[in-house]
Design goal:
Number of domains: 1
Number of strands: 4
Helix content: 25-40%
CATH architecture: 3-Layer(aba) Sandwich
InterPro entries: Thioredoxin-like_sf, Thioredoxin_domain
Strand order of the largest sheet: 2-1-3-4
Shape: globular
CATH superfamily: Glutaredoxin
Radius of gyration: 12 Å
CATH topology: Glutaredoxin
Pfam families: Thioredoxin
CATH class: Alpha Beta
Protein name: Thioredoxin family protein
Strand content: 15-25%
Number of helices: 4
Largest sheet: 4 strands, mixed
Distance between the termini: 21 Å
Length: about 100
């Protein structure tokens, strides 16, 4: 679900969720986004917010996001793991499935 930084910060928090940071002109981000869409369709029950990093300075700087694409696993509102290499649908599926349980 596409969100702004302000929307994400004002959301009803869940114990575990993920945030996918991207930029619109990043080709690798588009591939990673497609992989995440497949993972979501496969039944991972984790909320995944999609945020344009250009408009998320507080999260980018606070979480020290170094590049995009970046998938941040968030537990109780705090980042616990950041993945920059979206290797495959299977890898993402296992990562998100394990984190959500």
């Amino acid at each position: 679900m596409e969100q702004t930084e302000r929307e994400w910060l004002a959301r009803d928090k869940t114990p575990r969720e993920a945030v996918f940071f991207y930029t619109p002109l990043c080709g690798t981000c588009k591939v990673a986004l497609r992989m995440l869409e497949i993972v979501e369709a496969a039944g991972v029950s984790l909320t995944i917010a999609k945020i344009n990093i250009n408009f998320a300075p507080s999260l980018r700087d606070g979480w020290r996001i170094a590049s995009v694409p970046a998938l941040v696993l968030v537990q109780d509102g705090e980042p616990v793991q950041t993945e920059y290499a979206m290797q495959s649908v299977d890898t993402l599926y296992r990562l998100l499935k394990t984190f959500s349980s």
